[in-house]
Amino acid sequence: MTGMTHAMLKGANVPLDATAVRAVLRWTPGPGIPDVDASALLVGPDGLVRSDEDFVFYNQVRHPSGLVRKLSMKRVAEGLTDTVVADLSSLDASVDRIVIAASLDDDAITEGATCQDVRDLRILLYDATVAGGEPLAAFDVRPDTGEETAIICGEVYRRGEGWKFRAVGQGYPSGLIGLATQFGISVDESEAAQGTRPHVPVPARSPDAATRAAAPTVSPGSPAASPGAPPMPATTPPSAPPGPPSYGYPQPAPAVPQAPPAYGYPQSASTQPAYGYPQPAAAAAHAPDPNFRLPPMGPQFIRG
182, 215, 277, 299: which has the highest count of C-beta atoms within 10 A? Predict the structure, then answer.
């Protein structure tokens, strides 16, 4: 492919013989024309980054492996450039592709600019081992809707034992934050809410973990799980909710209806006290009334 530049259409791909590549974003600057930042994401076969360290951008310009890095913005005869360099031959086998993206800065987005306002944006892919060579591939990046503030320009991906380049041109109206989170990058919620550019990403707890940490643990047999249940055994931790009130007071849940006791006679053990007799607590507190007499038996008690 040396000495030959492939003019790419959206969705097209070409094989690469190079063991290292240089992806250059180039555009024409001018008054009122926003600049773009180049970034790269090292993505696995599942379409997600392995960790936040796989995001190479203006705030993290070098991958920990040293195999992918972002260069400084540079002025050339044709305009301005922002570049990402990748050593393909030494990349870990778990890296399936490198996504190359362009995004607008915060000031431009605040002023209402989109990728459509960037003049002559294109991506040029070079063999990084050849100095001064012609581009291997070139793709003119054109937004689809006019609302994009970040856009995937292209990707270098594995194919068998080699690598290929694909022209992508997929835009995101949510900027670099929306693009990065699409590939599994953790972004601070306050930054996402404000729409600002992400800082150096740090591992974040998943929403499920945060929810579990905030919610109290309720065991199946606890009073919190079953309102009106009997008090917990003595092994219940002191912080557990208090059990139901003592005997003789209304319970949170209505008691199961029972047949009324026989008139004038105490009943066997029951959850309800016998008619006409004091509660156990009251009996312990007051002496029996010596003048208490049973009412006379009615005819229903006379044997015939």
Answer: 182
Inter-residue contact 41 to 180 (CB < 8 Å): yes
Report how far residue 255's alpha carbon sits from residue 272's, in angstroms, rounded to the nearest whole number.
9
Percent of the chain predicted with pLDDT > 90: 58
Who contacts 167 (Cβ-Cβ below 8 Å, separation ≥6)?
A: 8, 9, 10, 11, 12, 13, 123, 137, 139, 153, 154
Q: Tens digit of pLDDT for each residue in 197-254?
A: 555 443 333 333 333 333 333 334 444 444 444 444 444 444 444 444 444 434 444 4
Q: Do the Cβ atoms of 180 and 52 come closer than 8 Å?
A: no
Q: Taking the CB of residue 39, how many other CB atoms lie within 10 A of it? A: 26
